[in-house]
Write a structure and sequence with these properties.
heterodimer; A: 277 residues; MetI-like fold; B: 341 residues
Chain lengths: 277, 341
């Protein structure tokens, strides 16, 4: 543990990643107290101050109905982070279980499970989520579902490959020889050895889930107004480029900051846990 | 039969199974959703008889298996049905929009490989030195924002503040290229109009780079990791002991074995650009599949959605087969595997 902290703090980039993610999480949790205009998260209209370039007290400017962009970004972070947690909490257990079963049991089970996984992997992720979103009603819940459906196969793939190589190890054979059940071997013997890889992937994916979700709402297929969302803020503002550049640039950079932070931490974790790319 | 041909046949067969799965999946999603597509297509004022007639025509009143049967039978004749939105065959719609998207993806893919792979080689050669850290930061930035954010930023900097590149579109209005393939680069060359060809490339530059930035990051990081791995191998040590120059070792000995694992992932990146192109096309008003795709999705145009997803998935599978073949051709263990047996 001490060694891990040392490696983490030795690298300035990892420290930057921790700082960025920490700041974003704090700002999102305490948005009600930190945001300059907390009530601007909803359908507020202030035509006296609409479409203002960044100036005090509107650090990031205001949108077309006079809402403070900075406040809306902070509240949008709430949605993004919740989405990341929910999607991974649903997708990882499903993917890991499928991967473990396919990799350990083998045979016909393996063939069927991995072909199904291949089907999901052979639709470009964004297209799969988009068509699901379009066929359902665009909303936050459906957005989470769509992203979950496109996400689990990657964990199935990862854990499948890990399980296949772990299956040949001595400790698995030993467990089988003393008569451990299949469930025990899969979840108590093999799974713990996959945890470092899964954890690293989850850290990096947290950023990517936010990224994909923002892409969906950018296309109008995610969180609906007036709820603030980074992707739809960019899409809305893109119509008024280049004059009202602050409408798109700040929400865009907000996505960059949080995804970049998770990537830096994921990179550091990879080094600490000794996971290969 | 050579092992490469055998591999090709095997890959085509499994891809076909996967494609059937994709069609079933998307077809199921399209049929279980709430809302009556016939009612949506005809609008709230249409009579109940008209809606019923359209439902009959679309086979919506039949059992699911029967509906899928009709779908497959039509598909075998190259018919994906009518779009309820444009009232044209879905295949005609897709054929009209697909070339613009494919052209964009092709150039983005080329950019990704031409920039990403050399960057990764540089990083591996100067690993743990400032240049390596710089490249790492650059590539990580690339993967850390969605393509549409890079599209906006690139557009603001290189089209508005420094008006070097055009803001939108595929070609300036002053050029008229007779359409042959739909790919403006090829069409302008067929017409022998090099000014138009240059103009098309000029329009492609920003969208292609915005689309490829994430891929550049991924391919550079992967190439770096694999090169570092290869540098630990004994044959590189031997080359070093022989005193070959660094550059020659990197290009002649380390490059090929390092590319074999990278290629598969680069292929996946290339294929996922087909989806991400939607985001870039929106910003640069690129007349590709994106606007059509988003429009039909928002209108619940079943045939068009199923058709679009199916075509994109087929493209995706083709790219992956081509990549697997390339890997087989480069990797002597696969290429020569039969001769030794």
């Amino acid at each position: 543990m001490k060694r891990a902290v040392f490696i983490l703090l030795r690298n300035p980039l990892s420290v930057l990643g921790l700082a960025l993610v920490g700041l974003v999480v704090l700002a999102a949790v305490f948005a009600d107290y930190v945001a300059p205009f907390p009530d601007h998260k909803g359908a507020v209209v202030d035509f006296l101050n609409f479409n203002k370039a960044p100036e005090w007290p509107y650090l990031f400017g205001t949108d077309l109905v006079g809402r403070d962009i900075l406040s809306r970004i902070l509240f949008a972070y709430r949605i993004s982070l919740t989405l990341g947690v929910v999607v991974l909490a649903l997708a990882v257990p499903v993917g890991v279980t499928v991967g473990l079963i396919a990799g350990y049991i083998g045979g016909r089970t393996e063939f069927v499970l991995m072909r199904v996984t291949d089907v999901f992997l052979s639709i470009p992720p964004l297209v799969l989520a988009m068509s699901m979103m379009g066929l359902l009603e665009p909303s936050l819940t459906n957005g989470m579902m769509a992203v979950t459906v496109m996400w689990w196969p990657w964990y199935a793939r990862l854990v499948y490959n890990l399980t296949r190589s772990e299956r040949e190890e001595g400790y698995v054979l030993a467990a089988e020889v003393i008569g451990a059940s299949r469930l025990h071997v899969m979840f108590r013997e093999i799974l713990p050895n996959c945890v470092p890889s899964i954890l690293t992937k989850m850290t990096i994916d947290f950023g990517f889930v936010i990224l994909i979700a923002s892409s969906l709402s950018f296309l109008g297929l995610g969180v609906q107004p007036p709820t603030p969302d980074l992707g739809s803020m960019v899409a809305e503002g893109a119509k008024y480029l280049p004059d009202s550049w602050w409408l798109t640039v700040f929400p865009g950079l907000a996505i960059l900051v949080v995804v970049f932070g998770f990537n830096l931490i994921g990179d550091a974790l990879r080094e600490i846990l000794g996971v290969e790319q | 039969m050579s092992p490469v041909v055998r591999l090709l046949i095997k890959r085509i067969a499994t891809s076909f199974i996967v494609l059937v799965g994709v069609s079933l999946l998307i077809f199921t999603i399209a049929r279980v959703i709430p809302g009556d597509p016939a009612r949506i297509a005809l609008g709230p004022n249409a009579s109940a008889e008209a809606v019923e007639a359209l439902r009959d025509k679309l086979h919506l009143n039949d059992a699911f298996v029967v509906q899928y049967g009709y779908f497959v039978a039509d598909l075998a004749r190259g018919d994906l049905g009518q779009s309820l939105y444009s009232n044209r065959p879905v295949t005609a719609d897709i054929a009209a929009y697909l070339p613009a998207t494919l052209e964009l993806v092709f150039f983005a893919g080329t950019t990704m490989i031409l920039i990403g792979v050399p960057l990764g080689m540089l990083a591996a050669r100067y690993r743990d030195r400032p240049l390596d850290h710089g490249i790492r930061l650059f590539t990580m930035l690339g993967v850390s924002a969605p393509d549409f954010v890079w599209a906006v930023i690139l557009m603001l900097i290189f089209a508005y503040f420094l008006p070097i590149f055009p803001i939108a579109g595929r070609i300036s209005d002053s050029f008229a290229v007779p359409p042959v393939t739909g790919f403006l680069t090829i069409d302008s060359l067929i017409a022998g109009d090099f000014a138009a060809f240059g103009n098309v490339l000029w329009h492609l530059a920003l969208p292609a780079f915005a689309l490829s930035f994430a891929g550049i990051g991924q391919s550079a990081r992967l190439t770096r990791a694999n090169m570092v791995e290869t540098y630990r191998k004994p044959f590189i040590e031997m080359a070093l002991a022989f005193g070959f120059p660094q550059g020659r070792i990197a290009r002649r000995f380390a490059f090929k074995p390092s590319m074999i694992p990278s290629l598969t992932v680069i292929g996946l990146d290339l294929a996922s650009m087909l989806g991400n192109a939607f985001l870039v096309e929106q910003i640069f008003a690129w007349p590709g599949l994106s606007r059509y795709g988003v429009a039909v999705i928002l209108r619940k145009d079943l045939n068009a959605i199923v058709g679009t997803v199916l075509i994109i998935s087929a493209m995706f599978l083709i790219v992956n087969i081509v990549v697997d073949l390339l890997v087989a051709l480069i990797n002597p263990r696969i290429r020569l595997s039969q001769r030794s047996s």
